[in-house]
Amino acid sequence: MSSVQEQPVQVVFTGTRAELAGMLLRGYALLIPTIGLYRFWLATWKRRFYWANTEIDGDPLEYTGNAIQLLLGFLMALAVFVPLYGLFFYLSTQSSEAAIAGYSAVAVLLWFLMGYAIYRARDFRLSRTLWRGIRCDQGGSAWGYALRRFFWSLLVLVTAGLAYPFMAANLWAYRYRHSWYGDRQFGFVGSWKQLARPFYLAYVVIAIVGAVGLGAGSAMGGLPTGGVPTVEGVVVMVVAAALIGLMMLYYRSREISRMFSAVRLGQAALTVTVRARGLLGQYLLFGLALAGSYIVLAIGGLIVLGSLASGAFVGGEFDPQLFMQALQDSMIVLLAIVFGYLLLLGAFSLMVELFLGLGFWKLVARGATITGLDSLRTVRARGEDTTLAGEGLADALNVGAY
Amino acid sequence: MSISGRFHDGLVAQVHAVGLDYEHAGSAGTLVIRAEDRTELARWPAADLFAVHGRKNELRLGANGQPAGARVVVKGSADVGRVLATLPVLHEKRRQQTGREVRLAVTATVALAAVIGAYLYGVPLLASRIVGLVPPAWEQRLGETVAQQMEASLSESGGLQVCDADPDSLANRAIARFGAAALEGTGSPFDLDIKVVKSDIPNAFALPGGQVFFFSALLEQAESQDEFAGVLAHEVGHVAHRHGMEQLISTAGTGALIGFILGDMTGISVAAGLGATIIDGRFSRDAERQADAFAARTAESMDFNPAGLADLINRVGADDEFARALALLSTHPLTDDRKAALEILSRQRPTGLEPPFTAAEWAAIRSMCGEPAVTAPARTKSK
């Protein structure tokens, strides 16, 4: 192999928003006749899109999982949830103190299980990721990860968040040091030191801005115990909240950049640069798109209602009495409510996926470069991962992303 | 002319720029994969080939019997078109795969629809069976807990102040006698505990375990024995049918089912709430109708018109247009419908029965929470 310094290779993303939008709209439409079961297929199609359009050195990733595995995983997760449901029911019939203690115990258990679910879901996705004919995989123990995450989060709670950089670096390291590409193990060279400066900076600024904003805002009458809040008070608090949001984006961009950039695979090294303004741009775009889609839906809704209950809109005036009379038939009203709600929900998740999900993936992919890729040409495949079903718990606990 | 593509052998993370050729050998064909220097890298029988999902204008082929990750990748719509035209087996396999998945999705959907259907029609039956298994002592404790919670939440406005604390007063004895008579013969494991309490809210309800609360505001609005006895008999009906417990069980079941449909077992989304409201509302309306029917049966042994309960409900809160429009979300049937149903049920009431309360008792009940603002009109015979 040549000793010439290799050119870093830029990761390329080739997918378009329109393509994803078409797939999602079709998927949402199919969710209705399948009573929600199509979600497993939709998740699979989505991943195929993200994976297949992420190209490293001329070769895209491939997602080899299928919907049936997700469906089976979900059914297995039910085995955990049915007893939990029974427990919930039993607790709800107990005296208030016992019920509160019981609910807290269940909440803690769920928080613990979430760590397990996150790790298992990552295992499922990695073991179904193929690049250049070689599969990735994840070792380690999901229970071990869950315990680690659980005790770290307790420490973070006790220290009012100050321990967070240690937890983040530790968990990133655990995840990557147990990841494999074929027979080659990933490495992780990051440490809490890389997170400390941006984290504590953001922490102090947020604390100060939060205290000043809340103090000044309520002094100016932004949080009255009764009556109308004053404009100045509200403005001060909104500005403070916006500043806090900016600081959070700043920290998030630093954590993503520095932790991803600490990922190694033998001699190959990943570098990711994500800027806070990139993240901010995504959220602004998302806000605009969401507002736009809701305006369109509102106009559409008015037209539909106008045609259903045209009498109520006579002469440009709205008559609620007439309107309600027009909606006498419960079935139509119910359908209208359900359909309208589904449309709002659909528009929301569509915009989340198109602008936050895809936006974030593109931001990371396009900000990523890899050096030392040639060293990977000697990686060999390992045996098959025979786990059939996965991720069910993650689905049930709502912790899945992508 | 061979088609150019990329080849991964699935063993080592190498990329080979390759030329693809197709050899016919009788009916069976073979895909031959050659490196740029024409050395043969692999031969894949056409029958073993399958296409995996890739991005647009890209065809990714794998083959059974080869390493799982082995792939041939062809790019560009022209080349992809040529390969697909040469290998109709790919279309066939894709169609089979899609067919399998569609069949599975349809089967799963039908199964889920069957579960939902069975739930909607089975739970009212099932819940009453399950309720039969719940020990009465447990249900009683539960009712006490609920009463305590209610009292605690109302503590600012003085809690649930009982109107007439003396259980042996004329009014309380009359009410207890009425309740016991109504419950007689139902085999209910509970002792009724009917309390008339001070409250500005016109309401009456039954808790699990036999406690019934009748709020003073509702009593004040009652214009006749018919109305008071009707509502009281209705609440005793809830106790007799153990509706409180039934509702708890079916609510838990509904939550689990909706969680399953939405995949959100935490059940915190609005969709879960709305779905549960529609289904639970249906069960609750059934329970109200059952309790109404119970009141009508009670009226077959005592002389009061159970339709009075609908009059009283109508007086404290007539259904407005909004309630009518949202009837499917409501926990109670529309009052007009209830009145009509009760009138049909009470048509064949035997005559010559004793009224539930004597004039003195009814007067005592009327005044047990302090003198009512308007003196009660003389009891009218059923309207």
Structural commentary:
The complex is a heterodimer of chains A (402) and B (383). Chain A is α+β, with helices and mostly antiparallel strands and 402 residues long. In chain A, 64% of the residues lie in helices and 10% in strands. With 383 residues, chain B is an alpha+beta fold. Chain B has 2 domains: 3-86, PH-domain like, CATH 2.30.29; 136-366, no CATH class. In chain B, strands 4-3-2-1-7-6-5 form a 7-stranded antiparallel sheet, with helices on one face. A 3-stranded mixed sheet of chain B has the order 8-10-9. In chain B, strand 2 (16-25) and strand 3 (28-35) form a beta hairpin. In chain B, helix 2 (88-133) runs antiparallel to helix 7 (243-262). Chains A and B meet through helix 2, strand 3, strand 4, helix 3 and helix 10 of A and helix 2, helix 3, helix 7, helix 8 and helix 10 of B.
Structure described in brief:
The complex is a heterodimer of chains A (402) and B (383). Chain A has 402 residues and is of the alpha+beta class.
How does the major sheet of chain B shape up?
A: 7 strands, antiparallel
Trace the largest sheet of chain B across and list its strands. Answer: 4-3-2-1-7-6-5
Low-confidence stretches of chain B: 373-383
Tell me the radius of gyration of chain A. 25 Å
Shape of chain A: globular
Radius of gyration of chain B, in angstroms, nearest whole number: 36 Å
CA-to-CA gap between the ends of chain A? 37 Å
Unreliable runs of chain A: none
Helix and strand string of chain B, N-terminal first?
EEEEEEEHHHHEEEHHHHHHHH
* Strand element count of chain B: 10
- The oligomerization state is heterodimer
Task: Work out the helicity level of chain A.
Answer: 55-70%
Query: Which chains make the largest contact?
Result: A-B, 72 and 63 residues
By helix and strand content of chain A, what is the structural category?
alpha+beta
Order of helices and strands of chain A: EHHEEEHHEEHHEEHHEEHHHEH
